Amino acid sequence: MAVAEDWNIRRRPLWQRPDLERHVNDLELASIDIMIEMGAVHVPESYQDGETPITEAEVRNMISSALFVANVDPAKIYAYLSTGYLVTVENVGNWSSCQLTAWNKAVAAYNESSAAHA
Questions:
Q1: Prediction pTM value
Q2: Which of 3, 54, 77, 109 has the fewest CB neighbours in a 10 Å radius?
Q3: Alpha helices in 12-116 (DSSP H)
């Protein structure tokens, strides 16, 4: 099965291939899951019952909190907050070239900014 997946990834255009440096990787995704299971990210009870609507701002806050406590690369957190997209190695093929360009530019901008301050 892994061979078929590798072949499918290699058939994608370069801009749609997973990049562990730029996209949220499997280890970071596992850390997010663990932090959520441990209760490190607060999800109010009212949202868990499915009856109370949740705003986009509240969702963004919960996701960014999960990324932070899971120790995801700050450049990727910045890209998420800047673009509103969470590009992972698993979903990179679902984004348009324009969306991936915006994500990659945000990652690069953060990295350039942090390098300038180092």
A1: 0.72
A2: 3
A3: 26-37, 45-48, 56-69, 74-83, 97-116
Q: Which tens digit of pLDDT belongs to each residue from 4-30?
A: 455 555 565 555 555 656 778 778 888
Query: Model confidence over 28-62: pLDDT tens digits?
Result: 888 888 877 777 777 666 555 666 777 778 888 88
What is the C-alpha to C-alpha distance for residues 74 and 93, in angstroms, rounded to an integer?
A: 22
In this structure, the number of other CB atoms found within 10 A of the CB of residue 39 comes to 8
β-sheet bridge partners, residue 88:
24
51-59: long-range contacts (C-beta < 8 A, 24 or more apart)? none
Place of tokens 């058939």: 11
